Amino acid sequence: DLISSGTTIARAASACRTAGAKRVYAAATHGLFAGKANTVLRGTPIDRIVITDTVPALRLEADLAREKVTVLDSTKMFAAAIERIHSGGSIVDLLES
């Protein structure tokens, strides 16, 4: 999934804290961080957000990005997928490994 403005993930994090979670981690494929994302995420009880590098997190303030965001490199996965598509390999096997 993706994080756009962060309001949905912020509400989910708050619900987790209310239910007793001591730490909250979030993961999304794409971190768009549009609109009021800086304000929303700065005030959220999320300890860390993990996203891929499929969309640059340019809209997120640098200090907030350092504090809360981990970006995973997706280059090898996409290269392997492209290679499998061209060679008749299985994308399903790639995703399961």
Task: Give a description of the structure.
The protein has 97 residues and is of the alpha/beta class. It is built from five helices and five strands; from the N terminus they run E-H-E-E-H-E-H-E-H-H.
Task: Please give a handful of descriptors for the protein shown.
single chain; alpha/beta; two-stranded parallel ribbon; elongated
Helix-strand blueprint:
Blueprint: E1 2-3, H1 7-18, E2 25-27, E3 30-31, H2 37-42, E4 48-52, H3 62-68, E5 69-72, H4 75-87, H5 91-96
Parallel strand pairs: 1-3, 2-4, 4-5
Uncertain spans: none
Estimate the global geometry from the Cα principal axes: elongated
H and E string: EHEEHEHEHH
Side-by-side strand order of the widest sheet:
2-4-5
- Overall number of strands: 5
Radius of gyration, taken over Cα atoms and rounded to an integer in Å: 16 Å
Structural class by SSE content: alpha/beta
Overall pLDDT: 94
